[in-house]
Each structure stands twice: as C-alpha cells, then as structure tokens.
Amino acid sequence: MGLQTKNFTSDRLVIQPVAFENAIRAIALEDCRFAVGPIRWHRSGHYREAIVSHLAPVVGTINLADHEPRADLLVLGMESGCRALLSHLQPLPSQNLVLLLIDPENYERWECVLWDQGTIASVDEVMISTSGILSLSSNEPNARPSDTEKWSRLEPIVGSEGLAKIQGATVTVVGVSRLGTEVASLLSTLGVQRLRLIDNDVVEPQNLSGIRMLPVNSAGTPKVRALAMQLQTLRPELDLSICDQSALSPGGRDFLRHRSDLIVTCVDSMAARQAVARMTHDLITPHLDVASEIQRRRDGTLEMFGDARLLQPGDDGCMLCVGGPEANVRGDLWYEMGRPESGLIRGPRREWSDTRAGSSILLNSMLAGMGVQMWIDAVTEQTRGSRWLRLNWSATPEIIEGSSVGNGPCPICGRD
Fold this sequence. Notes:
By secondary structure, this protein is of the alpha/beta class. It has helices spanning 17-28, 82-89, 155-167, 178-189, 223-234, 250-256, 270-283, 330-338, 361-379, and strands at residues 10-15, 34-38, 40-44, 47-52, 56-58, 73-77, 96-102, 110-116, 119-122, 125-128, 136-137, 170-174, 194-198, 239-243, 262-265, 287-296, 302-311, 387-393, 398-402. An 8-stranded mixed sheet has the order 14-13-12-15-16-17-18-19, sandwiched between helices. It is elongated and about 70 Å long.
C-alpha cells in the first residue's frame, strides 16, 4: 500500500490525462457508470499524492470485493454525493479509497474525498494535464496576475487564463549550462512563479562566453548558485530552489521527485535524460527536452541543428523512443542510470570535444525560445499532445516537425 498518514498537510490526486479522458467519455456516453483504477502513493514535499495511471470502466454497481482487500483505489463518476457513495461501497478499514465525482450539470464542479483507513478527508487538489502542459483542476479559480500593466503585452497573446496558468506554474530545469540558462531566463521573464534548478557542475572560464548573466568572478561557483543569484536580482519575488547534485545521484533524484508542472532537460548526458524520462512517466509530468549540436563536416563546413521535444504524459512516446538512441546502445544507458557515483564507467571516457565542434549561444537561444513556445502553446491549448521540432540552421534554415509517436518496444513508457 505504501500510504503513511504522518507528516503530510495536504492530499493531491494526479490522474494520467488519456486515462481520465477515456473514462469521462465512456461515463458521459453512458457506456458505464463509474471507472476504477489502482493508486500509487508518492510523497512530494508536504503533499501526499495519489497517482492513477489506468482506469477501467465499471458497468453497473461497484463491488469492492472484486479487488484485493488491501487495494487502494480511485473511483471516478459523474454524479453527486461522495459520502453517500462511500456509505454504499462500504470500504474495509484496511483500504484507502479516493472518490472523484464530477457534477453532471456543471463539469467545472467536483467533489473529491479520501477514505483513509476509516476516516474521511477532503482532497485539496486534483491534477489532470488534459489541455497540454498545465490543467490544474481545483475548486478555486486561477488567480489573475496583479500587475496588469507589466503583462499588458503578453496577456493579449496568451489570454488571462493562460497567463494565470503560466505564472502559477512550477518548472524544474535539469542542467543550467548554456541551454538551460537560456530556458530558465525565459521562464523567469514570463513570470513563472517557481523555478527549481539542478546541476552538479561549476562555472568554468569557457562558460563565461556562452552563458548570459554570469559575472567574471563566478568561475568556480556551482552553476545553479551563480544562475540563481542573477535571477533573484532580476526578479526578487521569484521562488527558487536549487540542487548542486547530479540528476542521477540519490540527492538529485529526491529533488526531482517533488511535484512540478513541467520538467525541462538541457543536459548532454543521455543517461540523465532517460532517468528524468522515466521519472516524468512515473509521476505523470510533462517533459520538455531541448538539445543542440554543432558538427564539422569533412569539407570543413559546419552542421548546426537542435531538437525540442515536448512529451506529454500518456501520449505516444517518451524521451527514449521519440527520437532517442538506437536500441543497440540502450544497455549502456541502463548501466549508467543505475551506476553508483563511484562505479566503473562502461566503455572509453569521451571528452566533450570528441563529439562536437563547438557551441553557439545564438543557436541555443533559438532552441530555448522554440521549446518554451511549445510549452506556451500547450498551456494555452493552441496545440494538444506531444511535439517534436528540429531546427536545422544553414544557408536555408528550416524547422522540421518530427513524429511524436515512439518506436517500441519501450521499457520506460511501455509502448509496444
């Protein structure tokens, strides 16, 4: 079960969006009365999260005897009266049951309660990413940004609701070197409420020419601290959390498990990117991956390109199977993902310069803007689902839309 009742002040329900949409559609069409799914429990700060990835329709009445006596379940329906339904279901004292009932007359009204081994408590938040990145369901309307003049140029583009969603978001950025700094700076400028930064590297002299906002005396400082200081200077009200450990370390993994509305990866390490992909899949969190590369061709000319992949939970793929590495190198990735920090490195150690001709702040800026705009489009419901865009910079630059359907079999998202 894994449910502990101590040291938590709030409960939150997180539902995989495709499972939720399919269940609601079946209930609305009267194909079934309820949908039921197993719960995984997760701790995120002071929240206790009930995570539901699958929902099965139930025709007729629900019989809890059909499930394991200690199974923790979500019951989803479109009617009123959670307590009356609980009385009818008669859950066992050993069970934990979450009921989410949506008012059939007004879909914006809902009631959610938790039966916690004999006690009843209201669930404070329900999160369903049905409209792209950020669709936070709550019985309270999104607060409108107070400084209307400051945002008077942005609001006409994203709308008042979109602006409130953007500026109420929590975003984690993994890797704050050249690309990650550009992404974090854009998110801060857009007014994102809370940024969480993780990187285990320190500022080196070569970084000073490729990372904006770094003062000359920051060499030797952890990158997350150097960036946080500059962002805090520009936006004193910005809520910042930093972690100067690797995303693959125990401390880094704990940092990433805290709930975010979006996790962005801007790292060279493919193992770190895949580890984040697995975590976003498990926690039902949207994942934006941004990467750039510059190669020198045999004729001496440069090949400059990069990718921005926005991967929605429950869609057709993840970082591993949408434009990810070939299957024959995935074994090395699994080894790196699980290797202790003091463990042996598999294969020869490769320097950064072995695979790249250089780095361009201009290319990174374009890709960061492209990736963040994809997120904005999803938040404001201009687009739905996952997207993969590739930027090729040459004499005739082009942006190519790649397939967001993964190539299975995938051990992360389970795609066949």
